[in-house]
Write a structure and sequence with these properties.
about 160 residues; mainly alpha; Arc Repressor Mutant, subunit A; single chain; about 60% helix; 7 helices
Length: about 160
């Protein structure tokens, strides 16, 4: 049985031409407001923006070498942006860059104790955010939503690669 599709009651959706980009940005802004207003504020001031995603990425790949180029690929960011973020995260004490045996030019990224502590707090918050976002959605609706987002990402990547 197909889940019932609910009509969006958001004012922007009343227009005949939907604005997907605007809605994605709007949702992202609301998520960030929710995080700063409701969750573990003791790290929000220091681990904002992409810092949280990068810390989680490094933690998820624990036991493997993670390099700046991995962040560039995973988060679709430029080399200069990744470099600035890594330098700032190192100054904040979240990560350290360590040399790799056999190639002095390569620096792997590892979490510090402070980075690990922030990850634990973020795990608690992530659970709350995810539950809040998908409240009253069926598993099928969530999978379909993720498929739509993936297609949008592929559309944008395809245009960027032309």
């Amino acid at each position: 049985m197909k889940p019932e599709l609910r009509k969006c009651t958001h004012s922007a959706c009343d227009q005949s031409a939907h604005r997907a980009g605007k809605e994605v940005r709007s949702l992202s802004n609301l998520i960030m407001r929710f995080i700063s207003a409701k969750l573990n504020k003791n790290y929000v001031e220091t681990a904002t923006g992409s810092n949280a995603w990068i810390l989680q990425y490094i933690k998820h790949h624990e036991g493997k070498d993670v390099f700046q180029r991995d962040l560039e690929k995973e988060f679709c960011i430029t080399r200069s942006t990744a470099s600035k973020v890594v330098i700032l995260m190192e100054k904040k004490g979240f990560i350290r860059r360590e040399g790799v045996e056999g190639d002095a030019r390569l620096k792997k990224l590892t979490l510090t104790e402070k980075g690990d502590m922030i990850i634990a707090l973020m795990a608690e918050d992530k659970e709350i955010v995810e539950k809040t976002l998908v409240k009253d959605f069926t598993d099928e609706e969530i999978l379909q939503f993720c498929a739509y987002i993936e297609r949008m990402k592929q559309n944008i990547q395809g245009e960027l690669n032309k």
